[in-house]
Design goal:
about 40 residues, mainly alpha, rod-shaped, 1 helix
């Protein structure tokens, strides 16, 4: 049971990190896109 809890905890943390990275990439990509359009 403990192993399962640890597994789900690690998967949850990994998913959270991936979500943050994806959001950051979208934000920076949008910012770069608007910068290119202005230029």
């Amino acid at each position: 049971m403990n192993d399962f809890l640890m597994f789900y905890l690690l998967v949850g943390i990994a998913g959270l990190i991936l979500a943050i990275i994806a959001a950051a990439n979208m934000y920076w990509g949008y910012k770069a896109e608007t910068k290119m359009k202005k230029a």
